[in-house]
Design goal:
It contains twelve helices and 36 strands. By secondary structure, it is an alpha+beta fold.
Length: 635
């Protein structure tokens, strides 16, 4: 008996308990509570509340000492994804809207930052196109620092088509933003300390030159220059506490992303300071002025490291208290006396806790309609692919005997991303309905080292797809999965994988669901070149990911499911957001037409004003109900 079989049998050695089904709304609704933050004093928290009954969201501010709500913002007009306190009386909300830009073709996802004055209940957009800001840009929501008097924030943006500059925008005043530093056409970032710009980053798409420059005596001096690089190999993400170095992430000798520093004086690189043999530095932990104090590592569950040994021990102790869950550090006060954690995964649908000198205190549940005992268990293992590569895999287990089960193959998007042990609403819904949910981290996935990721280059529809097939076959051979009751469901790249599964392995699955997925890769690349220009790093990135290595001249046609609909024998469901700006809706529209023209079974659901991420509550529910009905009818 292999180790994999033994471990899974152990999971079920205590027997099976029947359970009542939770409603589809419990899983498909947006989290009741999300985006939890704590004020600098620790006396206030702020959080997003989704009210499914009226399909509205609010951002609430609650005073922990007074034990009452002190402010609330109706989020109907904006779609925030990030929020944080500047001080006790000001919040920044970063939001997106899908809009038409005057003078530009089509619709665009436009990001913006808003300042919210809690006392005055006043919401102000910080940078606005046309108000000294170039009209033809979609990203004006980034804050890179706060002024020393805390009355302004520093934000980079295009002032005109030739200059990407740094502006100071008042939190409360309606005055026009003030330019504080001038950039160049190829400027991409600025680093600020004590109201002074200390460095700027440039990357030129035309000559593929990456630069770091420091500002001295009224002029810019280069301390780093890398030429002939289509894609940046170094990521500059913050400043050290002494303001003498930039913090830089790059791959170490083992192919893992590690933490380095670059001296502002002379560009000398030191490190790595934070690194692990089996994990990447996923991102740095920094304050509102981008002063770095620690890192978060990749992995199915998060882990952390800090310069301050006391903070590190506290976080390690908290994580160790709940070894079977993902324990995510969400926010903290500047003195670290109060911290907010999100606990999710096995036995938790997502719960916020405050941790301080008096221990843990419960704040709120993301999904109060799903009690812990109703959360399906998540099991991690590795399954060997046909070429011997071990594929890390997550299995979300139904509450039934692990034998001859119907299954859902659920590949992640990206494709250079990865799944984690958290409350995955779609996986948990399927498991609650009796399906074994399979999430292989196929080659090309991020988080498992550069060698593993680069094994996916040029392997869309080929070895990346083989990894999914091999995982299924292993589980079928072991007796866990009924080979006649398997459906593949995915979003974005996962949607492509679902269509590729239907087209390239027509005997493996009984149905396929693609959510905002790619069907025609050649058309995708043509769209990217049109939107960004053929010299842009985004185009270079996709060319490497999709076509690097030994591929044929007609590679893009070969791996596009839309060109192989004659192979498809199973029912296909296509779901796409009308305003998806990541993967345009025409990808699914054209695939649906091609399937219909070839007399194949297809259902197409277009979500009105829907985006790439099913972020609208009513659209998510509509999609889940359609998926549930489709799969129930087919497996």
């Amino acid at each position: 008996m292999n180790k994999f079989l033994s471990a899974l049998l152990f999971v079920f050695s205590y027997g099976v308990v029947a359970q009542d089904l939770l409603s589809i709304e419990a899983f498909g609704s947006l989290p009741k509570t999300s985006m939890m933050r704590v004020s600098p004093s620790g006396d206030r928290i702020a959080y997003r509340v989704a009210d499914a009954s009226v399909d509205k969201d609010f951002y609430m501010v609650y005073d922990l000492k007074q034990k009452k709500s002190v402010a609330a913002i109706d989020l109907s007009a904006i779609r925030p994804s990030t929020a944080y306190f500047v001080d006790e009386d000001h919040l920044i909300l970063v939001a997106e809207e899908n809009a038409k830009l005057w003078g530009y073709r089509g619709r665009h996802d436009v990001s913006a930052a808003f300042s919210y004055n809690i006392s005055d209940n006043y919401l102000k957009q910080l940078l606005q196109r046309g108000n000294g800001i170039y009209e033809g840009q979609t990203a004006i929501g980034r804050v890179v620092g706060v002024s020393t008097d805390a009355k302004s924030v520093y934000m980079p943006a295009w002032e005109n088509a030739g200059n990407f500059n740094l502006f100071a925008s008042k939190l409360d005043s309606k005055k026009k933003p003030k330019r504080v530093a001038k950039g160049r056409t190829d400027s991409i970032d600025f680093f600020v300390h004590n109201d002074q710009v200390v460095a700027r980053e440039r990357f030129n798409d035309r000559d593929n030159t990456h630069r770091i420059e420091v500002y001295e005596d009224g002029d810019w001096r280069a301390i780093f220059r890398q030429e002939e690089v289509e894609l940046r190999t170094k990521s500059f993400v913050g400043l050290t506490a002494d303001i003498k170095h930039l913090v830089m992430l790059q791959h170490n000798a083992n192919g893992r992303v590690a933490y380095y520093t670059m001296a502002l004086a002379d560009g000398k690189i030191a490190g790595p300071l934070f690194e692990q043999q089996d994990k990447d530095v996923e991102y740095v932990l920094s304050d509102i002025n981008r002063i770095v104090y620690g890192v978060r590592y990749s992995g199915f569950t998060p882990s952390y490291d800090f310069f301050d040994a006391t903070i590190k021990k506290t976080i390690d102790d908290v994580v160790a208290m709940m070894p079977d869950n993902s324990v995510t550090l969400i926010d903290h006060t500047p003195d670290w006396k109060k911290m907010i954690f999100l606990v999710e995964g096995n036995g938790s649908a997502g719960d916020y806790y405050m941790y301080g000198s008096d221990g843990f205190s419960f704040l709120a549940s993301q999904r109060p309609d799903i009690p812990g005992e109703k959360v399906s268990q998540i099991f991690q293992t590795k399954i060997k692919a046909r070429d011997g590569l071990k594929i890390p895999t997550l299995l979300t287990l139904p509450n039934s005997e692990l034998k001859n089960l119907p299954a859902i193959m659920l590949p992640h998007g990206g494709p250079e991303s990865y799944d984690t042990i958290h409350f995955d609403w779609l996986a948990q819904f399927f498991a609650s309905r009796g399906y074994l949910v399979i999430q292989p981290q196929f080659r090309g996935s991020d988080g498992f080292g550069s060698e593993f990721k680069h094994k996916g280059r040029g392997e869309w529809g080929r070895k990346m797809q083989d990894d999914l097939t091999d995982t299924i076959r292993t589980l079928v051979k072991s007796g866990y999965v009924n080979k006649d009751r398997i459906c593949i469901v995915g979003a974005s790249y996962g949607g492509y994988a679902a269509l590729a599964g239907a087209a390239f392995t027509p005997d493996v699955y009984k149905c396929a669901v693609s959510i905002n997925g790619v069907a025609d890769i050649k058309r995708m690349m043509r769209d990217e070149k049109r939107d960004y220009g053929s010299d842009h790093w985004v185009v270079a990135y996709w060319q490497k990911v999709i076509s690097e290595g030994n591929v044929a001249d007609d590679h893009l046609e070969q791996i596009s499911p839309i060109n192989h609909v004659s192979n498809i024998k199973i029912p296909v469901m296509l779901i796409h957001g009308e305003h998806d700006e990541v993967v345009p809706a025409h990808q699914s529209e054209n695939m649906a037409e091609e399937l219909e023209d070839n007399s194949r079974s297809v259902q197409y659901l277009e979500l009105e004003k829907g985006d790439h991420f099913l972020s609208n509550g009513s659209n998510r529910m509509k999609a889940l109900k359609a998926i549930d009905k489709f799969i129930s009818e087919n497996i």
